[in-house]
Amino acid sequence: MIEWTTIGTYQDAVRGSATRDRAARAPLPAAPEDLRSSDAAADAAMDRYASGEDAAFAELYDLLSPRLYAFAFRSTRNHCEAEDLVQQTLLKMHCARGRFIRGAGVVPWAFSIARRLMIDRARRAKVRGTNEASDPGEAIAQLAALDLSADELVHGKLLAKIIQDEVERLPPGNRLAFELVKQDGLTHAEAAKVLGTTVMAVKLRTHRSCAALRCALRKSLDAEKA
């Protein structure tokens, strides 16, 4: 039986900084087919881990931690806090692995745990009266989800600032649905499980978010050309 303190120490020392570096250097989301392949591998690793194969944890960590880290960092805007949320998520998964249903999808389960932890963190921050500033650089990752033309992408830095401002204006539910589907690579069904809503609601929120972002970007580009 692996003690979590042993796993946590190993991951912090060997993989923690690498996770942050990968997320910081890779702003664009992975291709959908890559994420689907990663999901299948993570499901298989979780099945083995839930069956008592402790060695499967390292594979599960490598497959899930970069995606969980990117998800957490968008909420916290803080590398240390995002890494801590990843560790807390994996700890909860470790503690509940005996109850995991073999054959179920581990990715939406992991994101659901992370989201609950982030909600708890946001509530505590609200009580303390703290709030983190947004990072405009993160907005570049959202450009790839909008299917813009080459001419529009030339204005990358300007677009990044515009899109970040517009994302901040989205209703929270729409924003999270957009991020889960367009950036984190979850299917509409998986995102629905994370958000505790219907597939149709996720599709509608994502569509509205994309429409709002495209409209804001193209208005800005039209104004620049005028």
Shape: globular
- The H-and-E topology, N to C, reads as HHHHHHHHHHH
Counting H and I runs of at least 4 residues, what is the number of helices?
A: 11
- Tell me what portion of residues adopts beta-strand conformation: under 5%
Average pLDDT confidence is 75
Give the N-to-C terminal Cα separation. 67 Å
Q: How many β-strands, per DSSP?
A: 0
Poorly predicted regions are 1-29, 131-138
Structural class: mainly alpha
Oligomeric assembly: single chain
| Reported CATH architecture of the largest domain | Orthogonal Bundle
CATH C-level name of the largest domain: Mainly Alpha
Helical fraction equals over 70%
| Sheet having the most strands | none
CATH topology assignment of the largest domain: Rna Polymerase Sigma Factor, Chain: A
- Evaluate the radius of gyration: 18 Å
Number of domains: 2
CATH superfamily of the largest domain: RNA polymerase sigma factor, region 2, helix turn helix motif
